[in-house]
Amino acid sequence: SCAMNIDGCNGLACLTKIEDAASEATITPLHHMFVIKDLVVDMTNFYNQYKSIESWLKRKNLLTKIICRWFYQVKEMGHICKPKVIRRKKKL
Fold it and tell me: Which segments constitute the Succinate dehydogenase/fumarate reductase N-terminal domain (predicted)?
């Protein structure tokens, strides 16, 4: 994760803007995470908690799963089997 403490505020390093006028920026790992090395933190606890709350969508029943899978396959096949348009160069 690119979450870090940048100048005293927690944020994503990939999205946080640092002012041009600043001559220095202090970047540290998040205070509540275990540091493996430098700015690399151990994400094991985060992923275990994320898995435990099951924050993803779940299908209600087997029939819904089957129908959704079928529609997905039809959509994919349609995408693969689209006719290709070949444009020929004009002769001068």
Answer: 1-47
